Amino acid sequence: MPMRTILGSILLLLLALPTSDHVAEARRGPSGVRIECSSLSDRYEYCRTNAIGRVRLERQLSKTPCREYQTWGSDGDGSGVWVRNGCRGVFVVERGGGGHHGGGQGMSITCTSKDYSYAHCDVPVWGRNVWVQRQLSDKRCVQGNNWGVDWSGIWVDRGCNAIFAIR
Fold first, then answer.
1. Is the pLDDT reported for residue 71 higher than 60?
2. pTM for this one?
3. How buried is 79 (Cβ within 10 angstroms: 0-12 exposed, 13-18 middle, 19+ buried)?
4. Selection from 85, 137, 84, 130 nearest residue 109 by Cα
5. Domain boundaries, the chain
6. What DSSP string runs through 60-91?
7. CA-derived radius of gyration, the chain
8. 19-94 placed in CATH 3.30.460
């Protein structure tokens, strides 16, 4: 078989391979950014929104229930949405609403270790108390082990996904 035919066949195979079963498409609208994010094959998936604001589920696309903090959630600033266990939906990042929950002196933020990898959530914590307000992952979050605080925020690692309270 000539080399040109072999190279052409390889190129066609590479182009036909799926790069990921990740589904995310962001669209800007008057009320903010809409993004479709899907957990296919019951896998965890993270979708960047490229926006800042408060995230809400606009429309569920899956038969599997989408429940905030259980099968979907967002970064504290709204810059990303995560889904798992078959949740598929259209999410809206609304402008003006901060992604941090709560108010007054205290606040909370969702920080997620995607694929058991290290992640850092930039949030003012200097001189404040930080604790796990609600655990979102099956993996237990243990301070000093798979989550902690540094001078610029909260870090998580090895599967710790939680809402952290800051006061």
1. yes
2. 0.47
3. middle
4. 130
5. 19-94, 107-166
6. E-SSS---BTTTEEE-TTSSEEEE-TT-EEEE
7. 19
8. no
